[in-house]
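Objective 1b: paired records.
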Amino acid sequence: MEREAAIARSAEAIRLHSGHNILIESGAEPVIDRLAGRDLLPPAAPAELSAWTFVVKDMIDVAGLRTTRGSVLYGSEEALTTAPCVERLERAGALLVGKANQHEFAWGVTSENPHWGDVRNPRHAQLTPGGSSGGTAAALAAGIARFGLGTDTGGSVRIPAACCGVVGLRPRVGVLPVEGVAPVAPMFDVVGPMATSVADCARVWRALSGAAVPPLDSLSGLVVGVAEGCAQAGEFAHLGAELREIALPYDILLPYWTIVGAQARRTHEATYPRNAASYSAGVRRKLDDAAGIGHREYRRAVEELAAARARFSAEMAGIDILITPTLGGPAPRVGCDEAAVRGEVGRITAVVSALGLPALAIGDLQAVGRSEADVLRVGRCWEAAGGGIPAPC
């Protein structure tokens, strides 16, 4: 009965938001048919996500479904296997609703997609849902699913969480398997869970990683670094934290974007520029801007990145958690010029990606730490104390 009720709720939400281009698959009926007929994997013990519905970003393989990467170049045939991260969730009892729409090739901050339709933001109609995991965030905000999986290279889980008023975790690289997940820039690519609460995100994280998140009653004794004038700093102090101001190392972005561009060019070398006409103008510009990054420039960027990480690690000595806004500027509006806004919108999340640290976006509040458990525990304490999900500016 619980399973049938969950399927019915998802189907009704899909119907209500049928014009929002949230899922790659259109209409509620295919979803109902698939859920009713899908063979469940042998459950883990306990099945802690029993009858929890979820969606996955369309960079992630699911056997029997297409993986389009938000492009017209892929998805002509069904995937043969399911990504391990999805299998773990199904073994925990979760029900896959479908594949979520996204920014083309997971490279952009708006999820306005010329091939599969622009994803609409169910909570803020004048704003895009953010990107690139905009369809996953929108599915949660619309009630289509209880949680979802996104991918994050420079902010693609956290920016949509901020724009749609949900929660998203970027884990460290290598903590979760990325087999069966289409790459962008492998040095920084991760899969991350998204949910409508920190508590749900922590439950999903446990199913994905096997790591429980013990409760934290207060922040007493924790030193919290505050960057970018984080608006919630006073509330963290009220929860017992000692606050210290700290500056983000924006100098890390130059080597970071050099590495991302070089790796993305290699990711697309089989199809670009040979199939350039099938790419949107926005992604073409990004790939063209990265042309010509050679071995020496790449190696120098890797060395500069490592040095910047070491410098910031020294500055973080004695600080337990860092809090920042998630968005580096106003949330992108519908119809905006993505090229004109992406640098500002994603500047904070990109710095955190470059540093290689895990981060939890609670709407437009980002907690950064040394482990996923650190940021989830702080987020759960914030939530338990009545802290809401800060809306996008």
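Objective 1b, second protein:
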Amino acid sequence: MADLGKPQPGLVVASHGRHCLVETPQGSRLICRSRGKKSETVVGDHVQWSATEDEGVIVKIDPRRNLFYRQDEIRTKSFAANLDQVLVLIAAEPEFSEMQLARALIAAEMEHIKPLIALNKSDLVEPFERAWGRLLPYQHMGYGVLPLSLRLSQDTDHEALLKHMQGRTTLVLGPSGAGKSTLINLLVPQAKALTGEISQALNSGKHTTTATTWYWVDEARSTALIDSPGFQEFGLHHVDPMNLATLMPDLRPHIAQCRFYNCSHMHEPGCGVQAAVAEGASATGIQPNRYRIYRGLFEELSQPRY
């Protein structure tokens, strides 16, 4: 192996296979490879890299503040590290899945990352009213919920969203049809060209989309947007089912009223959560649908692992 130069700090802004794109504090970018057979870096990582003759080598990954990821039965998929918030973008049409929304919020809660929900297509009056009604319980839980109309390019909506993002690193999640690409191209007009350049650099000229990409929203490089790949499923196999209720803000306050310290909130007598559900959403804030989501996830996460 060629001699390595003195380690220098950098930020991972894209990753593919064993290679990643690292940005220096001065703003220049170079391709770096991992030392081992497998890359451990994710977008948002602060790293130490050393120069070789033709590229850089990742010497060390600095400690992470957090890591947002999903895990199914087979594999773990990391989105990004060192996040300030996760923006979950959903739309009034097509109708969003509350289960998928809950999964993303639970994953963010687990890593102590602030979630923000944006509901797109406010110009579709009736569908938007229905969808907004479904999100009222989330507002009562303390989550920020913003209306958005990317189609109409309403300045007030975009300004409110930018205000929440200013000076922060935000990962954007969203199902297909929610308007994620439109939002990113609106906030980062050069995003398409940048993605093309990154794909070419990391994939030896092949125009394949890199999985996760970091964009600067402002020239001062203080506000960052991370585009994530679309997904059909969001596995939570890294969540202990016995901790699940602590990651749901509407269930969490009632855990202290449970008779048993290891209550699953599924069938035990003297369960504070079940008592709150029976009392009704208007009194306790637990919607029947949210408790159904809890039960479905608890059963899924309690399945034996092979």
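The chain has eight helices and 13 strands. The longest helix spans residues 125-140.
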